[in-house]
Amino acid sequence: MPQSFTLPPLPYADDALAPVISAKTIGFHYGKHHKTYVETLNKLVAGTEFEGQPLEDIIRSTAGKNEQVQIFNNAAQHWNHIFYWQCLRAKGGGKPKGELAHLIEQTYGGYAKFKAELADTAIKQFGSGWAWLVMDKGSLKVIKTGNADNPIARNIRPLLTIDVWEHAYYLDYQNRRNDHVDAVIDKLLNWEFAAENFSNAGVSGGFMPAMAR
Ligand code: MN
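Above: inputs. Below: predicted complex with manganese (II) ion.
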């Protein structure tokens, strides 16, 4: 029997990100939305060529294929959320350090301009989606993707992401996505995780071996 995908434990307690993201939001976002992506994905791949395949392989082979859009959506959302939970931490935010900070300085002309670009991208994603800091062919970029779409479907390496689906903030911020995004950037971004992703950027093969399941 091939192994099914499972909902990995959150890397912190439900209330660790409060008051920026409440325990109630985490309860729905992780406990309902993310859990449902995992359960739906397992049902969709059962008995297909994708059963037992690594998550990233499923994402890459179904990306852009109309007949496999449901599998893609649920596989990519599972991956996006595993990644997203690690992008946040209690007492996070502030400025990045080390080589990544240096590249941000070089690329954007300072942290303040970078922050403005990331916030603007997250706010302007029309409807559901994600804002990402990525390494694309050696260049640091801020990009946005709609719905479940993600950088690994395009062979671009993500360093950080912000979920801008309404389910990520509506209980705490209602329509004020800008306030949510500002607070996440200032207080929750996990720059240590981004630096790890950045330093692994030259490794060949899968982006996140630990995230295969
Ligand atoms: Mn989400």
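The radius of gyration is 17 Å.
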